[in-house]
Amino acid sequence: MKTMMNPIDADMTMLRATVHGKVQGVGFRAATVQQARLNDLTGWVRNAPDGSVEVLAQGSADAIDNFLSWLHKGPSRAHVDRVDIVDGYVTERYFKHFEWR
Predict the structure, then answer these.
(1) Distance between CA atoms of 21 and 58, rounded to whole angstroms?
(2) pTM for the full model?
(3) Active site residue 47
(4) Is 6 an annotated catalytic residue?
(5) Candidate list 47, 77, 82, 101, residue with the active-site label
(6) Which fold, 6-89?
(7) Residue 90 has pLDDT above 80, yes or no
(8) Which residue in 16, 33, 51, 58 has the fewest CB atoms around it within 10 Å?
(9) Mean pLDDT of the chain
(10) Residue 52 class from Cβ within 10 Å (0-12 exposed, 13-18 middle, 19+ buried)?
(11) Where are the domains of the chain?
């Protein structure tokens, strides 16, 4: 899957995305943290006021691609309508782990 991501060093890529659909109140954030950790990613996930979920992830390009594929499906109780990749460089720090906010 071709993704628009920021290279943050030779071995690491960053993804910032917004997931739309039935993604709040269905365990989406907890499942996202689990998937990110399984893919050895760092970053965060949080609910947005409009009912979407925002994600920032850092890791290898392959891990980001796998994670992005999962975001398009989400956990079993979710219904993902679309995933928007947020363009532009992100100036946030490197993260030590993946967390929900």
Answers:
(1) 23
(2) 0.83
(3) yes
(4) no
(5) 47
(6) Alpha-Beta Plaits (3.30.70)
(7) no
(8) 51
(9) 86
(10) buried
(11) 6-89
